[in-house]
């Protein structure tokens, strides 16, 4: 099996495992972000109260600052669903659609506007009437079975997202996801980098750009600094000239090792935080209505969803 296939199979296995085990993590984390934000602006942010019910976001923020958007590349269920839809459309339906680079760059800005919109109009001003416009509602409904369609508007967003995913890889992640926008903005001290010496590239190759899941143009660069990068490793693993490399603090590392570092660090920190909190308190989680030990993440997700809609 070649390096590209090997790496992409391992990534797919990781993604599917997270999709099965933690399908609601993206919704939970966005709900936690909302709680931290609203508690902060209302002046009632108490770390001791917020931390036990927001473990995931407290772990994800520092890890994203260091590792970049690995959550999007490996852990987020909706990212995986976008990948699966795109794989189906390109391999089975043979849909080949190419978006204009300029249009793609422009559309990528929409997700930052969506995040700003949610923060200002829904989280800050508490405009409940605008909840239907929140693509997160459509996002959450995809993993709920049977789907509870709350409004025609959010159903339209859902349909748009699904159709978009057939034509453009990671459609929702590229253009609409507010959590993706947030994670993009915080990865300031990224130590995991992909570099390629463009002068060593095979003439006219550009395979890395063509295989980039986020449509980042890699042709004229020596190092990937784009905040759109989700650390999927398609570019480095697929480089025919073995010219694109992934490194941690300038030390070249094998792609699979980096993937395992991403996911095991997240799992280890989360496990450690949950067990520390469980050791320190058996109090009922005021947000989820469930103890971390008893009911776990599914109820926490359901309640975080309710909170997010308030
Ligand atoms: S951009 Fe959003 S939907 Fe896509 S993988 Fe990241 S958090 Fe998930
Ligand atoms: S795939 Fe490798 S050789 Fe081809 S353009 Fe990218 S870095 Fe250069
Ligand atoms: S630059 Fe490479 S690692 Fe980043 S999203 Fe594109 S293909 Fe994936």
Automatic annotation (TrEMBL):
The chain crosses the membrane at residues 12-37, 57-85, 106-125, 145-168, 175-192, 256-273. Coiled coil: none annotated. Residues 192-221 form the 4Fe-4S ferredoxin-type domain. One of its GO terms (cellular component) is plasma membrane. Keywords: 4Fe-4S, Electron transport, Iron, Iron-sulfur, Membrane, Metal-binding, Transmembrane, Transmembrane helix, Transport. InterPro entries: 4Fe4S_Fe-S-bd, Electron_Trans/Redox, FMN-bd. GO terms for molecular function: 4 iron, 4 sulfur cluster binding; FMN binding; metal ion binding. SUPFAM superfamilies: 4Fe-4S ferredoxins. Pfam families: Fer4_5, FMN_bind. It comes from the Bacteria. This is FMN-binding domain-containing protein. It comes from Caloramator quimbayensis.
